[in-house]
Design brief:
Elements (H helix, E strand, L loop, with lengths): L12 H12 L20 H15 L29 H9 L12 H8 L4 H10 L6 H13 L6
Helix pairs in contact: 4-5, 5-6
Length: 156
C-alpha cells in the first residue's frame, strides 16, 4: 500500500478519510448489501477502503465498524455498545447535545427507590454506600457514584 503520510502507524488516517467521505457525500455507498455492488465495485478505492474497515472490525472481534455515523452492528469503532446504532447519526447527535448521558428506561428511578426503601435521602444513601463499597453490589456502588456526580451538575 502506498504511504501517503497520514496513513502512518499512529496517524489519524481514518479521521482524514471519513472527513473526505462526508465532504463528497459518499457516506454509506459501500456498506451492507451495497458492498461489491454497482456503487462499490471490487477493486475500486471505495471497495478497498470498506474492505480495510471490515478487516479492522473483524480484528476487534465485532461485526461492524462505525465510520461517519454508519454502523453495521450495535458497537462503535472502539468496541463499546452503542444503543443508538440503529437509530442513525441524527438521533445520536441530538442525544449528545442533551448531555451525553443515557439511562435505560428500565433502570430509571431504581436508586431512588432503594434509597426510599432504606428510609434515606438519595444523597445520604449514596454517601453511605460510597463509604462502605465492599458491603454493596457493584451495580449499587455504580448507581451511588452516579448519584453523587449527577448532584454536582448544573441542571438546565
Amino acid at each position: 500500500m502506498t504511504d501517503y503520510g497520514y496513513m502512518k502507524k499512529g496517524g489519524k488516517w481514518i479521521q482524514s478519510v471519513v472527513k473526505g467521505i462526508k465532504k463528497r457525500g459518499t457516506e454509506g455507498v459501500c456498506t451492507g448489501s451495497k458492498f461489491g455492488g454497482p456503487s462499490c465495485p471490487p477493486g475500486s478505492k471505495r471497495y478497498n477502503l470498506a474492505k480495510t474497515f471490515r478487516a479492522m472490525a473483524k480484528k476487534r472481534g465485532q461485526e461492524g465498524l462505525q465510520v461517519g455515523g454508519k454502523n453495521t452492528s450495535n458497537k462503535t469503532a472502539s468496541g463499546m455498545h452503542d444503543p443508538y446504532a440503529s437509530s442513525g447519526l441524527k438521533l445520536k447527535q441530538a442525544y449528545m447535545k442533551r448531555g451525553g448521558i443515557h439511562i435505560k428506561p428500565e433502570n430509571k428511578g431504581k436508586f431512588t427507590a432503594s434509597a426510599k426503601k432504606a428510609g434515606m435521602s438519595v444523597q445520604g444513601y449514596a454517601s453511605k454506600i460510597m463509604a462502605n463499597k465492599e458491603k454493596y453490589s457493584p451495580t449499587l456502588v455504580k448507581r451511588a457514584n452516579f448519584a453523587k456526580n449527577a448532584a454536582k451538575w448544573k441542571k438546565g
